[in-house]
Every structure is written in structure tokens, then in C-alpha cells.
Amino acid sequence: MIEMLAERVNSDAMLVKRGRFLSTTFLLEVGPTPWLVVVAEGKIASVTRGPFVMPSWTFALRAPENEWQQFWAARPLPGHHDLMALIKRRALKAEGDLHPFMANLRYFKEALVKLRAEKVAA
Amino acid sequence: MTAQFEPVIGRYMNLDLFGRPHRIYVEEAGEGVPLLCLHTAGSDGRQYRALMNDARITANHRVIAFDMPWHGKSSPPEGWHNEEYQLSSVQYTTMILTIMDALGLDKPIVMGCSIGGRIVLHLALEHPERFSAIIGLQAGAHVDPYYDLNFLHRPDVHGGEVCAAIVSGLVGPDASDRDRWETLWHYMQGGPGVFKGDLYFYKLDGDIRGRVAGIDTSLCPLFLLSGEYDYSCTPEETLAVARSIPGCEVQIMKGLGHFPMSEDPAKFLGYLLPVLERIAAAGKTPRRVVRS
């Protein structure tokens, strides 16, 4: 599922444009499974599943698998619906050099929401 | 297309605050019982645009919203360029009471959201005799910092972009794109360091946990309304405040977030109008209600 990130982000022209000054590599940890995501000028250049021997990344986003599952639900419950909500609940750990993450926070929020299940009628 | 003018009138007020001249922007609409509205941190009085355009409110209320100094169309005071803006409880209270006096408001209803929801708890505790009723939106006694506030004000991060991105998830999921992005636009327009300076009050100076139980609702009725998708001031935090104050009325607003009056006015009015009707039916002792 995480692999879909590239196609879903890269097909959103405005999102890619918004990230055009962003090139970075971050670690997305979904429970026990780490993923390395390379962003090049707003496009997702690669998504690689771990485990890794010596991964290099600028920042990491780590949360238990069930937290990500709830975040990626079609209509997440309150407190599960936004990266900052997960951080507030201490469910998501953001660590490393967070400058690119915070400077492009809207980009990362909208990119990761791309993995959300298709919305159904509320 | 013929231009449609809204019934909202804006004026600039010059007055001294904290011993310094200030130029403050004030908007109002309607006639009747004054309803003084306080905006959230890092935003401005436009958050109340829908209330000022809704005849169900303005037929019986004079709705007033001012932009705090440094916010919206209000200027920072002379000398600001060599200062760090930090809002304190004392300044915030003084500002509200001074502007009330300048506008000649006699016992208005005061309604504040977020930092405004916090300061109305201070007002309920310290100046209940000045108000006919107090409404706290997204009101909690304290919020722990949950991100590094320095990211809000540094030259290598766009302040408007990051402030809006920080709060974007505080808008409930059912808000229309129009109202969601209008709400976020106000954040994008905030001056450098202003949101951060407001949060000094919200997360540090304005902590009222130790005193909030001292609010006496027999002196002034207190109503709390909080959106369920707010993770800044959570429903649990609002309910904890309500539980500690005898006579406080509280309701959790389904589907709404941290900016109810701005993000989804129609849904919010469904909760606010009954409260205003209760207040209009004056003199009745507030009755405690539980979470819906």
C-alpha cells in the first residue's frame, strides 16, 4: 500500500508544484516495517521497503501500524485524522532534522493523506 | 452581476492600551444585546463573518469583533520592529475591558474561541460582573506544547504556510472547501511571530488549571461549546473544565473542529442559537448538561 504513494502524489500536479523546492529522504515507519521515501523536487522518486542495514534519512515519522491504519481510514476518528493530532497524542514520533518536514508541512500532510482509503458518504 | 453589500461595518479606533497608542480595527453588525466576539490565536475578526451576516443573530444582537493588536487590520504599536510579541493574560484582559469601555458596551455577552475561549475563563473568574453571559468556544484550562513553537517564526520557514499547515487538521472533516480555506487563509496572512506570540498565552502564561474551579456561575452564566475534532483543546479538556465549575453548561459539537464559527457556520449556529435563546430568557439558573 505504501508503494502507491509515488503514483498518487506524482499524479497531483498542484501538490508536486507545491513541493518543487523540496528534495529529501525520510523514513516512514509503519509499526515494525520501515520505508524509505525519496522526494525529488516535489515528486516521490522512490519508495523502498526495509529492513535496511544503514539507512540514511533526514527525518523519520514513526507510528504503530494500527495508528497508521486508523489515520488512513476513509473517515478517521477525531484524534486520528491529522499528523499533528497523532503527534499531540504522542502516537506519532517525528524525529531527526525536522526542518524540511515543518517547512513543507502542508505538502507532507497532503502527501500522506493520499494513502487514505477512498472516501465513502459520511 | 449587481454588487451585494454585507451589513458589516468596519471602523478604526485609536486608543491607549498598556500605556501606548494603538490603532484597532473593529467590525460590527446588528442591533440589540451586544455580543463581543474574540478570535483565535494568529487569526482575526473575520472568523465571525458568518455570524455578522446571519439575521437570526443580528436581529437581536449587536455582533462586534475587533482584531487584536498585531492581528488583521489592527497595527502593532509603534516600536514593534524591535520587540518580540508575547501575549500575556494581563494584557489580554486589559485589552478586552478597555475596548469594551471605549465602545460603551454595558454587560455584553462575550464569546471567545481558543485563546479567546481561554481568556473568557479568566474573565469569568476575575470580572464576571462586567458580562451578562460568557461563552467559551474550544475552551480549556491549559494546553501542553506538542510541537516546537520555534518553527512558527524563523526566516527559513514561511510563517504563513507553516501556521496554516499546523492548524489545518483542526478544521472538522465536514467543513466546506470555501470555509475551510477561508479559515486557513487568515492564518496564512498573520504577521511574523504573531501566532507564536499568542501561543505564549495559550500554552504558558494563561494556564488557569489551578483557579478555574473558582468560577461562580451565579455571578455570570458560563456556556462551553467545543468541536469534537479539536486536538488542540480536546473535548475531554473542555469537559474537565465544565465538571469543575458548578452550573457551567457544556456541549460537544459533532463534526466540528477548533474554528466552529468560521469553518462551518451553519452547523455551529445550530449549537449557538439555543444558547443565545437561553441567555435571552435571562435570569434562569444555568443547568448542567452532559455531553451529547
Provide a compact summary of the structure.
Chain A has 122 residues and is of the alpha+beta class.
Question: Could you characterize the architecture of this molecule?
Answer:
- The complex is a heterodimer of chains A (122) and B (292).
- Chain A has 6 helices and 5 strands; from the N terminus they run H-H-E-E-E-E-H-H-E-H-H.
- Chain A is α+β, with helices and mostly antiparallel strands.
- Chain A has one domain (4-113): SCP2 sterol-binding domain (Nonspecific Lipid-transfer Protein, Chain A).
- Chain A has a 5-stranded mixed sheet with strand order 3-2-1-4-5.
- Chain B is built from 10 helices and 8 strands.
- Chain B has one domain (9-280): Alpha/Beta hydrolase fold, catalytic domain (Rossmann fold).
- An 8-stranded mixed sheet of chain B has the order 1-2-4-3-5-6-7-8, sandwiched between helices.
- Residues 284-292 of chain B have low confidence and may be disordered.
- Chain B has helices at 49-52, 55-58, 89-103, 115-126, 159-167, 177-188, 194-205, 235-244, 260-263, 265-280; strands at 9-17, 20-29, 33-38, 61-66, 109-113, 133-137, 222-227, 249-253.
- In chain B, helix 5 (159-167) crosses helix 6 (177-188).
- Chain B is an alpha/beta fold.
- Helices cover 34% and strands 18% of the residues of chain B.
| Class by SSE composition of chain B | alpha/beta
Distance between the termini of chain B: 44 Å
Portion of residues in helices of chain A?
A: 25-40%
Strand share of the residues of chain B?
A: 15-25%
- The CATH class designation of chain B is Alpha Beta
Main sheet of chain B: which strands, in order across? Answer: 1-2-4-3-5-6-7-8
CATH topology of chain A: Nonspecific Lipid-transfer Protein, Chain A
Shape category of chain A: globular
Order of helices and strands of chain B: EEEHHEHEHEHHHEHEHH
Largest sheet of chain B: 8 strands, mixed
Given this structure, which CATH class of chain A is correct?
Alpha Beta
Shape of chain B: globular
pLDDT average of chain A, as an integer? 96
CATH architectural grouping of chain B: 3-Layer(aba) Sandwich
Rg of chain A is 14 Å
Number of strands of chain A: 5
What's the SSE pattern of chain A? HHEEEEHHEHH
At the fold tier of CATH, the topology name of chain B is Rossmann fold
Helix content of chain B: 25-40%
